[in-house]
Amino acid sequence: MSQIHAWAATAAGGVCEPYAYDPGPMGADEVEIAVEHCGICHSDLSMLDNHWGMSRYPFVPGHEAVGRIVALGERVAGLRQGQRVGVGWMAHSCMHCPTCLSGEHHLCAQSQGTIVGRHGGFADRLRCHWAWALPLPETLDAGAAGPLMCGGITVFSPLLIHRITPTARVGVVGIGGLGHLALQFLRAWGCEVTAFTSSESKHAEAKALGAHRVVASNDRRALRAIRGSLDLIITTVNVSLDWQGLLGTLAPKGRLHVVGAVLEPMMINAMDLIGGQKAISGSPIGSPTALATMLDFAARHQILPQVEHFPMSQVNAALEHLRAGKARYRVVLDADFGV
Fold first, then answer.
1. DSSP 3-state helix, strand, coil percentages of the chain (rounded to 5)?
2. What pLDDT sits at residue 94?
3. How many Å apart are CA 114 and CA 331, to the nearest integer?
């Protein structure tokens, strides 16, 4: 088996350097993908710096990969050589536990993240279980579609989980890598969309992306002005917020749904939930079926992230661009091994 060439960090917070490894024998349920493009997600930075305490080094980031299948294990079903697919946060699930058999593969206790104990997509090739290699609709731009595989499904899944109707009034907190996709999905879904941002410079852009109105998330008076008006809020940021103020904008039976990895405890007053029978929930990505649904919806409405491209050989510059908060709104690496 030929070696896979990649970019890897050898220690927490380190730079990525050329790295080659032997992937070993091909698994019967695995596919191998020749990576063409790979998005960079904030989760790559968290794993690179070992913020979550589960990184292993050498560490190859990358879990928003798009490429063509170059090899298939003997038990692979429904995929073919040369087919273009996308791979996101998840690379493997057991396929036989009650959770998998009920269609919730992304919640499998034996699941494996693409960059958790495995080497990711900052490489010329990538392996995963066939169920997590999702065929990419031909009408989607392959060069921009990678971030849909993680960022896209993260904000799309709440619409499926909570059976959001087109008449729902939905707020999105944070107009960044996740939020700018959420606005597009919700507008196409038919919802009345409110964008929450602390950056006044993003107001016009939020409306262009699909928001009907924009509210300053750090302005208590602005939050009180829309009190009781929203059915759902999707919060995409990873910092603490005015939770009481946001809960106040929810209508009775409204829900605050968390997809941003806030590391500090959320200070919530129980009475803010009890009085209006409100709820707080969260979710990770989505099942293979949810991913396929999201890709079909994105293709139908031509929803794609706004991306900036870097050659994969400039991976460290791309990572610093994201780390500095300069990305508008996602960064995609274009594989240039052997160029």
1. 30, 25, 45
2. 97
3. 18
In single-letter form, the type of residue at position 163 comes to: R
pLDDT at 185: 98
Give the mean pLDDT per block of 10 residues along the chain (339 residues).
Answer: 92 97 96 98 95 95 98 96 98 97 97 97 98 98 98 98 98 96 98 94 94 95 96 94 95 97 90 96 97 98 98 98 94 92
> Cα dist. 226→84, 142, 164, 214 in Å?
45, 39, 20, 11
User: Among residues 158, 166, 190, 188, which one has the least CA distance to residue 257?
Assistant: 158
Domains of the chain: residue spans and CATH = 4-148+286-334 (3.90.180.10), 152-282 (3.40.50.720)
Distance separating alpha carbons of residues 6 and 125, to the nearest angstrom: 8
N-to-C CA span, the chain: 22
Query: Which of 250, 90, 264 lies closest to 173 in space, CA to CA?
Result: 250
Chain centre distance of CA 261: 12
Strands 169-173 and 192-197: parallel
Site of tokens 């293979």: 288
* pLDDT for 201: 86
The per-residue pLDDT for 1 is 53
Question: Could you tell me how far CA 158 lies from the centroid of its own chain?
Answer: 12
Residue 79 has phi, psi (to 5 degrees) of: -125, 160
Q: Which ranges of 240-287 would DSSP assign to H, the alpha helix? A: 243-248, 270-274
Do β-strands 30-40 and 125-129 pair in parallel, antiparallel, or remain unpaired? antiparallel
